[in-house]
Write a structure and sequence with these properties.
Helices cover 30% and strands 25% of the residues. The chain has 361 residues and is of the alpha/beta class. Helix 1 packs parallel to helix 6, helix 1 packs parallel to helix 9 and helix 3 packs across helix 6.
Length: 361
């Protein structure tokens, strides 16, 4: 029997398991597939919510706290595992925002650098950009990570310290006298003193039998990858909900769709064409960069994007850390710390009330 069973091996589950084992807990992590291969793998790795000023304060609180941890976290993981997550402050350029004044005010309030760029400065910041928009905002401190490498590093960092069980789907939470005592998979029963559900888009299914179902649903997101030359695009660029993320090796991620199609994980030709067209409109020179790949992920959508973090009402020893929607990576470290604080009885560094399962949303 473990002290804690973590259900779900995405970035939230991996960070939660790492936080708990670093605090001295004996931890088992169970994952229905391969750790880190769902939404955590499929995302873009931008270390900021898109249009961050449009998010509710609870999302801002988690993202700002997490952003401060990432440089050291990535450096530590590289020392522990030899895997470079490619943390790079490439900056985020936002074109044609409709709420520039609100953005600038938000930046001043939260001490986040946001600059309004004149056309000349914009062309200097993003060489090769197509028709110059009349309004552009520049967030120079926004970083990115190569998320597939980051989740690989997380898994390697906890291997040997956490009992990892992959290819084992949890089908039922085990309760005894109003207390969580583990979970049953298609292979076996796993017992633990406490249980943390971090199963992303699949979280609501696990809680459904218990009567208090969190409002989490899958939201499909499709992306494409261009094989471009290094330096052809040198900034992350966001325009009308489409974004480009240049990697060090020249590859460029283009994302992303927002589709409510249930648990259907399938790419479409329409999305591929739409994303490619958006990229060429922004940077016409990418016409010669071939499309190397297309993929899909299922985000855990939630009201206002506010995750559910905390104890499950009425059942002792059961906790949730899920529903991060588009911001699992950028809010992950603070979310893991918060659920660990609550589970271990520590003073939380963030007000936990907005994330409670029974909070008004």
């Amino acid at each position: 029997m473990s002290d804690v069973l973590v259900i779900g091996g995405g970035v939230i589950g991996l960070l939660t398991a790492r936080e708990l084992v670093r605090s001295g807990a004996d931890v088992t992590l169970v994952e229905m597939g391969t750790t880190g291969r769902e939404a955590s793998w499929a995302g873009g790795g931008i270390m900021s919510p898109l249009y961050p000023w449009r998010y509710a304060d609870p999302v801002t609180a988690l993202s700002l706290r997490s952003q401060g941890h990432y440089p050291q976290l990535c450096a530590t993981l590289r020392e522990e595992t030899g895997i470079d997550s490619e943390f790079v402050r490439s900056g985020l350029l936002i074109l044609e925002p409709q709420d520039q004044d609100q953005a600038l005010a938000w930046g001043r309030e939260h001490q986040v650098r946001i600059e309004s760029l004149a056309p000349d400065a914009l062309r200097e910041t993003a060489p090769g950009l197509g028709p110059t928009p009349s309004v552009a905002l520049w967030l120079p401190e926004v970083a990115q990570i190569r998320n597939p490498r980051f989740v690989k590093a997380l898994r390697r960092s906890i291997a040997g310290r956490v009992h990892i069980r992959e290819q084992e789907e949890v089908i039922e939470l085990l309760l005894d006298s109003g207390r969580a005592v583990g979970a049953r998979t298609r292979k076996a029963s796993i017992t633990a003193d406490r249980v943390v559900v971090c199963s992303g888009a699949w979280t609501a299914q696990l809680f459904e039998r218990l009567g208090n179902r969190p409002d989490i649903e899958p939201v499909r997101g499709q992306m494409i990858l261009l094989n471009a030359e290094p330096g052809q695009v040198n900034r992350m660029v966001l325009c009308r909900d489409r974004y480009l993320i240049p990697r060090r090796d020249g590859r460029i991620l283009i994302g992303s769709t927002l589709e409510h199609q249930g648990f259907v994980k399938a790419t479409t030709a329409e999305a591929k064409e739409d994303l490619h067209r958006a990229a060429l409109e922004l940077f016409p020179s990418l016409e010669h960069a071939p499309i190397e790949n297309q993929w899909v992920g299922l985000r855990p959508g939630s009201p206002q994007g506010i995750p559910y973090i905390g104890a499950y009402p009425g059942i002792q020893g059961l906790y949730c850390n899920a529903g991060h929607y588009r911001n699992g990576l950028v809010t992950g470290p603070a979310s893991a710390r918060l659920v660990a604080d609550l589970l271990l009885g520590r003073e939380p560094g963030v007000d936990p009330s907005p994330y409670a399962l029974d909070a008004d949303r």
